[in-house]
Amino acid sequence: MIQCAPRPTATTVVNGWSSERRELLQARLTQGSLLSPVLSFFFNADLVQRQGQQAGRSIAYVDDYTAWVTGPTSEVNHANINRAFDWERRSEVTFEADKTAIIHFSRKKTRTDNDPFLIEGEAVYPKERVKVLGLIMKWRRRRAYSGLEADLQNEDQAIDRLSHIAERYPL
Fold it and tell me: Does residue 145 carry a pLDDT above 70?
């Protein structure tokens, strides 16, 4: 006897109104689907809005999520970042350890925290440099060489761009 799984069905609920349950002809979205950004907006809204209420900002687009938090100590920042992992557990989604990066910005290396975050049982340690939206972010804000001003200006511009993107495309 061959048993087949029943075809998936779905219903749409908006402001308490529910559509009738219908069979899904295709139960997944193809890569690059026009619906992906819309659906990700609804799915990720809780994460992005929750992150925005803390000391920090975040950007989300489809399956990419970038957040930055600020605080007086790296321990406070660590606790704020853990809220994103709480959302991960509640939403039953998975952050991929190999696509996750943590960076602490500080003028002094001794003020940073090197404790890892556990993602899918894999330790993810803070890095000294991370690429965010094509911009290289470095943990250290001061340098002891002649290129200090240019380096700081590039990092300030990168942070400014991230802030403008978040302001221009609020969720």
Answer: no
